[in-house]
# Entry
Amino acid sequence: MMKNRESFCLYYYSNFSLDNEANNYTFRVGNLLSDNSNVDCTDAIKTDELTAQNRPFSTFDHSASQYDCPKRMQSSWWFADHPNCTAANLNGPIESTTSPEISWQPNYLIVQFALYEP
# Structure
């Protein structure tokens, strides 16, 4: 994630998995392996109340949240069942003049996100 040319964070997780369709593609991620010395770096994927961990995938026509997060955040994602929906919205609109947008708290906007299994 990049905030500007001088401030960036790298995130590596020990593993990840997605459940099958019957389990709504529930997201699971392992331990954070990165040592981000930058104080602005936070693990927005596993942020306490806004975690994507163990959350089902939500879409406009299949929201797993009582807060209708896909509509509010203008995207599909593993939203928390919380009024703020998420700390990381990597599927948000790319060019948005107002919130919501692609984001990673706190205020990191340029994103490259890869999930893979060796």
